[in-house]
Structures are given as structure tokens and as C-alpha cells.
């Protein structure tokens, strides 16, 4: 069973989506969008670009203790 996108209204006229795994774990939450249509466009952008996205680790490793 695949994961799913859930669209929800958070505040008056603010829409977000959650990406959930097949087991219901939330793995991503979107920024706020001012319309349902904008939220759906953001979902489509994730669907389009995520399969090709590369992982860029921008975390800075801690320097070894002296």
C-alpha cells in the first residue's frame, strides 16, 4: 500500500499537506498555502521532482574534541 498526501485547512484560508507512509507515519509537512489550489500545485511539484531529488547533507560535522 503506498503512502498518501493529506490536505487540511489549518487556519482561516490556510491549507497545508502532510505526506504519510502506508503505516500512517507523517514524513513531511508543507508550508502554508493561501488556497486549496496552491496546496494541490505544491503536491504536484513534490510528485514531479521528488523521484529525482538528490540528498544534500548541509549539516556541519562537529570538530573533534582536543
UniProtKB/TrEMBL annotation:
Pfam families: DUF1508
Coiled-coil zones: none
Domain (DUF1508) ranges: 11-57
InterPro entries linked to this entry: DUF1508, UPF0339_domain, YegP-like_sf
PANTHER family hit by this protein: PTHR40606, UPF0339 PROTEIN YEGP
Natural source organism: Streptacidiphilus monticola
Protein name as catalogued: YegP family protein
Amino acid at each position: 500500500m503506498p503512502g498518501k498526501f493529506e490536505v487540511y485547512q489549518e487556519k482561516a484560508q490556510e491549507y497545508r499537506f502532510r505526506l504519510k507512509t502506508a503505516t500512517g507515519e507523517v514524513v513531511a509537512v508543507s508550508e502554508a498555502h493561501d488556497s486549496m489550489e496552491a496546496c494541490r500545485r505544491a503536491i504536484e511539484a513534490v510528485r514531479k521532482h521528488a523521484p529525482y531529488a538528490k540528498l544534500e547533507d548541509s549539516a556541519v560535522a562537529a570538530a573533534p574534541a582536543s
